[in-house]
């Protein structure tokens, strides 16, 4: 299984959109970068599915453009005109060469889900490795209408309960992807999530001025 960030070259605000290749080619989120469908086409000729972590605009704006280029199924938790498959907590989704468990992780968004596999975690915005607030374990903002810090804390706790020690890669909606370092002193994905949870539990504003 290989993972490519197809929005890495964006010049405008977007999420990270990840192309997962292998037995089943899947795009995790589509982002808001014009031309993302061309970047996907540079890597693959066909796309089996698009899987959405949630439907904030920076994650879904280019969905029409991608679907015009590729005949792909669309998996989402919340309703969407293009949704072909509903995601529920406890479902499984095949991506690349792994089976991923769907974990309902609201707080940043009411329809947020994460995907936990044997070696990788696609976390959307519930937990990220680095962003403008923290550089080694952060979490999605919860200060806007419809968001909840308390619910996000519960989601992080639940995510840790379902996270196997074999997961060594974290692919988040923003910031850099994280791969566990080798050696006894290297951070694991679990360390990153636990650090994000600890910071969220302080219940301080994530950004100054919130």
Automatic annotation (TrEMBL):
Domain Metallo-beta-lactamase stretches: 14-174
Domain of life: Archaea
Pfam families: Lactamase_B
Keyword Protease set for record: no
Entry keyword set: Hydrolase, Metal-binding, Zinc
Keyword Zinc assigned: yes
Cofactor requirement: Zn(2+)
An MF annotation (GO) of this entry: hydrolase activity
Name the record gives this protein: Glyoxylase, beta-lactamase superfamily II
């Amino acid at each position: 299984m290989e993972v490519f960030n197809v929005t890495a070259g964006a010049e405008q605000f977007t999420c990270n959109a990840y192309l997962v290749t292998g037995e089943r080619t899947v795009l995790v989120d589509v982002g808001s970068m014009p031309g993302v469908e061309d970047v996907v086409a540079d890597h693959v000729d066909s796309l089996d599915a698009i899987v959405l972590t949630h439907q904030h605009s920076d994650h879904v704006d280019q969905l029409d453009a991608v679907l015009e280029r590729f005949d792909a199924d669309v998996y989402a938790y919340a309703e969407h005109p293009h949704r072909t498959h509903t995601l529920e907590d406890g479902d499984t989704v095949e991506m690349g060469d792994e089976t991923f468990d769907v974990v309902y992780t609201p707080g940043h968004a009411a329809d947020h889900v994460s995907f936990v596999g044997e070696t990788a975690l696609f976390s959307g915005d519930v937990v990220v490795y680095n962003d403008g607030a923290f550089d080694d374990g952060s979490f999605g903002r919860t200060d806007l209408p419809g968001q909840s810090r308390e619910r996000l804390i519960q989601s992080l706790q639940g995510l840790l309960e379902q996270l196997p020690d074999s997961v060594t890669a974290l692919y988040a909606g923003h910031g850099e992807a994280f791969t566990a370092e080798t050696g006894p002193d290297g951070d694991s994905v679990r360390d990153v999530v636990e650090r994000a949870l600890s910071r969220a539990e302080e219940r301080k504003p994530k950004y100054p001025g919130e």
